[in-house]
Amino acid sequence: MVANVLEVNPERLWASLERSAEIGRFREVGLRRLALSAEDKQMRDLFVEWAQAAGCTVEIDRLGNIFARRAGSDPSLPPVAIGSHLDTQICGGRYDGILGVLCGLEVVRTLNDRGLSTKRGIEVICWTNEEGARFSPPMMGSMAFAKVLPLDSVLATSDESGVTVAEALDAIGYAGPAPLGQRAFDAYLELHIEQAPVLDREGCDIGIVVGGYRTQALRLTINGDTGHAGGTPMAMRRNALVGAGYVIAAVNDVGLAYAADEGRTTTTRIESFPNLPGTYAEEVKLTIDFRHIDAARFEAMRSEIDAAIAAAARKANVEIEVAEGWSWGTELFAPECIDLLKSTARELGLPYREMRSQAGHDAYAVATMAPTAMIFTPCFEGISHNVNEAIELSRSVPGANLLLNAAVARANR
Predict the structure, then answer these.
(1) Interior CA angle at 401 toward 354 and 188, to 5°?
(2) Handedness of CA 46, 99, 396, 373 (dihedral sign)
(3) Domains, in order of start, for the chain
(4) With contact defined as beta carbons under 8 Å apart, do 24 and 39 qualify?
(5) pTM strictly above 0.90
(6) What value does the mean pLDDT take over residues 343-364?
(7) 133: buried, middle or exposed (CB in 10 Å: 19+, 13-18, 0-12)?
(8) Mean per-residue pLDDT for 231-243?
(9) What does the alpha-carbon distance between residue 85 and residue 275 come to, in Å, rounded to a whole number?
(10) Exposed, middle or buried: residue 21 (CB in 10 Å: 0-12, 13-18, 19+)?
(11) What average pLDDT does this structure show over 219-246?
(12) Omega before 274 cis (within 30°)?
């Protein structure tokens, strides 16, 4: 770092991360902190307590998105927002989303330490249900905020126990009074662990994200009929689970065929009915997704997946209904924000690489309504959505310092 620049307090940041890691601890080293659960409430309460202690005003909207604002000298100007999420996967790690929120809080705390004011306010955001582990789709709070998802349908979405988002918000006391999507941002910056191994393997501590992989989820309903596993002749069967098996294998083969140029395909979820021994399945629901960095290759993957689904239906003698689910990656991050991150990194003497995000983030939704950019920091071997997710503080601090100085530069313009 060069002289006379702002630096976060690494020990305080790490202490905050360690305190977060106590809430929803799972398998000793990981977290299970599902959106709108008791554990999520506990972490939200702690974040609000920390933000208020740092002098922020806190507002909560109808979907429980939390906005903690450090006031600027000119309250008529929209703030610079820094955000991510505090909820985790079922077998989640300690840093996915969490590092971004707590680095945002550390920006506020560092400015307080220095007694510095900014022209624009700085607003730290915790978005609701980024992970989609309890309620689907992922990035629910930010997409509804950006009016990509309708509020009524989001509130009516239920988990596997039949609890709706609206009921869960009420249960934890986070159905806030602020109207959804009525806030304006001068810019939005999100810091996140990479969730891929590039930075870690290259020994680079900062990735400046210039865009995302185009991504599409498909929800498949495979309809057959049910029958006796012993008595029904093979030629008479319309086994939906067999149809699902053909689809799963074929979709994986498509991903392998496109892997050389960074294509990805995944079957993420399967539900089978009646799911009993001695009986074959009448209905199976699958969720698959596919991703590619190149738009033309993405469309080619879609064609091959569509053909594979049709072939699986014929082979298993079943019907397959296909509905499109969530999608992202077509949104463009703002060149002005990307340039700000690059120029700030150069001024600070921080090496970086440009990269694209292979995962989905709240920043994609916010990019539809405000100038947006992202910073990636390394995680060990890219392991994420896994209890063994790990980071090194020394390799995370450069990204935190880039976030701090870029946010202040933007807030003072």
Answers:
(1) 65
(2) negative
(3) 10-213+330-411 (3.40.630.10), 214-328 (3.30.70.360)
(4) yes
(5) no
(6) 92
(7) buried
(8) 95
(9) 35
(10) middle
(11) 95
(12) yes
